[in-house]
Amino acid sequence: MGDGSVNLPPGFRFCPTDEELVLHFLYCKASHLPCHPNIIPDLDLPLRDPWELNGKALSTGNQYYYFAKVKENRVTENGYWKELDIIEPINASADKKVGMKNYLVFNIGESPTGVETSWVMQEYHLCSSVFNRASHKSRRKRNLDYNKWVLCRVYERNGNSGESNTFSCGDGDDSGTELSLLDEILVSLDDDFDEISLPN
Question: What CATH number is given to the structural domain containing 50?
Fold first, then answer.
């Protein structure tokens, strides 16, 4: 990570559930607790266009993960993140609400007339109930940060752009049924070979 690149070793794939993202990573970040492995970096949300995340955020497949401070103004150099009316609760295994996930889409240009792109962000927030498990003394200190940090998962939807590879993992929107660009090329080559008649 010293060179700014945040990647997993070959053969490893970061594939957490929503619950794991909230309780293991975001909770530790907001509580100033050590997190092992500490692989998700902090980035300034307003300063990054989604295509600039490669090499700066934790990259796995076509998804990028990073921490950011909560900000109302999600403007970047070339556009802005627009909130969608989609908010999903995140429940722990005991069916207790521990966080929320809301969706944003990246628009190029100035709000509100920007052009929608295929870039999507899932923004994870903690619920205050997560901190109620701590003692009153430590909770008073930790509550200062529980609503200041979010964990962001950014990916490019397939369909609008043929340049994005399919990656299915965790709770992402991609179903994994679409072919990647490489798969589509291989399938088209197979079709071409079927049409070729070899001499006897």
Answer: 2.170.150.80
Question: Per-residue pLDDT tens for 55-111?
Answer: 899 988 889 999 998 887 888 889 999 999 999 999 987 778 999 999 999 999 999
65, 58 in Cβ contact below 8 A? Answer: yes
Give the C-alpha distances (Å, rounded to integers) separating 20 from 27, 57, 115, 128. 10, 18, 33, 17
DSSP string, 160-190: S-TTPPP---TT-S--S-SPPHHHHHHHHHH
Task: Please say whether the beta carbons of 99 and 130 come within 8 A.
Answer: yes
Domain that includes residue 35, residue range? 18-163
Is 187 inside any structural domain?
no
User: Do residues 154 and 61 make contact, with C-beta atoms less than 8 angstroms apart?
Assistant: no
Answer yes or no: is 55 within a domain: yes
- Which residues, in sequence order, are bridge partners of residue 69? 149
Q: How many domains does the chain have?
A: 1
Q: Residue 18's pLDDT band (boundaries 50, 70, 90)?
A: very high
Query: For residue 30, is it within any domain?
Result: yes
Q: What is the DSSP string of 103-143?
A: EEEEEESSTTSPEEEEEEEEEEEE-GGGGGGS-HHHHHHHT
**pTM of the shown model:** 0.71
Cβ count near 199 (within 10 Å): 3
